[in-house]
Write a structure and sequence with these properties.
Helix content is 40%, strand content 13%. By secondary structure, the protein is of the alpha/beta class. The strands form two sheets. The protein has a seven-stranded mixed sheet with strand order 1-7-6-5-4-2-3, with helices on both faces. A five-stranded antiparallel sheet has the order 8-9-12-11-10, covered by helices on one side. α2 (16-39) crosses α3 (58-71), α9 (268-297) packs parallel to α11 and α10 crosses α11 (391-404). The longest helix is centred in the C-terminal third of the chain and has 30 residues, at 268-297.
Length: 408
């Protein structure tokens, strides 16, 4: 056994208790999904595609019912016509907010791709529709409850936004406990304010989702956690019926909402991906735990820290310089099953303020539930590693990185 293999094996053995906790959560979430499939009498006919308007699309509509049951909420909207998490979030923002009303982010700055959605000029943004925006920074990886209380007491706020994952911020993701506490505070002061959670990278991390612990609405991408690595596209919105319907009206039109929307290719991979996702998310978390533990032992600063609980599927790794950062991301690409021969370089990616390098040799293009890594090229030089359809792939990729970067 060579020294790298021995080192990784030792790291794996040191994480036994952490892995068991992840497996326990995965099993509880799997039972919810399995029961929802049985309760909704999923059959072969649900996998068939439709064309035209998509009226009475039983595959689409049943999947919406399953989402609502799994997430323990009133209603859910699933659609392959939602192209990304940013699109799903935008549907909620434009569906609910009206001119002169206020959107308040209580998790600090929004993710890069939402900047223009909210504050862009003459592009159809919220700002163009005279919708106000403000934000409150996090303090020590938690909400600033005092500032939130003061702001809501002094101002009328229609819509509160929380970003569960970290985006390109060097912080820990929000926990379900923190989200629940913030929801309780908001509803106590301003019960009519809509509380929304960007749930991207957060599904099945814990046994409860934001809409089952106080949030009115949440949204996410099907090519992240909830699609299990099989969903080829799409997104979802879930929560209270009134708000889901408003978002649906924005997706199609106010007169038709969720009644239309065909998908000729069929729904098998959406159903199969959802069914697989609790296990797939667990695999991704285990891979992240291994990377953070091993790289911490090799002298790198990671978030979460070694053996620390994961509250999304992302492991942040801080590098000494941009050359080392780029080399790490390129190595993740070389360790991929698809496009392993390609070399990624930083580029001016649409929607981002800095050049970004993205390593993703995926079966579904850009699917960050698959092992991938990306980073804006700016200080501090932090790589954001996420996903992994299998723990074995993460372990192999770690071996590649240790060799390529001469870390051991």
């Amino acid at each position: 056994m060579d020294k790298i293999t021995k080192f990784i094996k030792e790291c794996e053995e040191e994480l036994t208790n952490n892995f068991q906790e992840v497996d326990d959560i995965a099993f509880q979430n799997f039972k919810k999904v399995h029961n929802a499939f049985q309760n909704n009498k999923v059959a072969l006919r649900h996998f068939a595609g439709t064309s035209g308007y998509g009226y009475d699309d039983v595959g689409r509509d049943t999947l919406c019912e399953i989402f609502a049951e799994v997430f323990e909420c009133e209603k859910a909207l699933f659609s392959p016509n939602i192209v990304s998490g940013t699109h799903a979030i935008s549907l909620c923002l434009f569906g609910i907010l009206r001119p002169t009303e206020t959107l308040l982010s209580i998790s600090g700055p929004v993710y890069d791709t939402l900047e223009d959605v909210i504050k862009g000029s003459n592009i159809g943004s919220l700002k163009d529709f005279n919708i106000n925006y403000d934000e409150i920074e996090l303090v020590n990886n938690d909400f600033d409850y005092t500032k939130i209380e003061k702001y809501l007491t002094a101002n009328k706020v229609k819509f509160i936004f929380m970003q569960r994952s970290r985006g390109y911020c060097n912080r820990l993701p929000l926990t379900t406990h923190q989200i629940k506490k913030a929801c309780c505070l908001i509803k106590k002061i301003s019960p009519d304010t809509v509380v929304f959670v960007d749930n991207c990278y957060g599904e099945f991390i814990d046994i409860k989702e934001p809409v089952s612990i106080g949030a009115d609405l949440m949204a996410g991408s099907m090519i992240k956690n909830i699609g299990g690595g099989l969903a080829p596209t799409g997104g979802y919105i879930a929560g209270k019926s009134t708000f889901v319907d408003l978002a649906a009206n924005r997706l199609t039109a106010p007169s038709i909402g969720m009644e239309v929307g065909s998908y000729i290719s069929g729904y098998q991979y959406f159903y199969q991906g959802l069914y697989q996702s609790p296990h797939t998310v667990a695999q991704a978390i285990k891979g992240g735990l291994l990377f953070s533990h091993a790289l911490s032992k090799l002298g790198f600063e990671t978030l979460p820290k070694s053996k620390e609980k994961y509250n999304d599927i992302i492991c942040s790794i801080k590098f000494n310089d941009k050359e080392q950062l780029i080399k790490f991301c390129q190595t993740i690409q070389y360790a991929s099953p698809v496009d392993s021969f390609a070399t990624p370089y930083p580029w001016d990616m649409p929607g981002y303020n800095d050049q970004v390098i993205m390593a993703a040799g995926c079966f579904v293009q850009g699917a960050s539930i698959e092992l991938s890594c990306d980073s804006p090229i700016k200080e501090p030089y932090i790589a954001y590693l996420q996903g992994g359809l299998s723990f074995e792939h993460a372990k192999l990729a770690l071996e590649y990185c240790i060799k390529k970067l001469n870390l051991l």
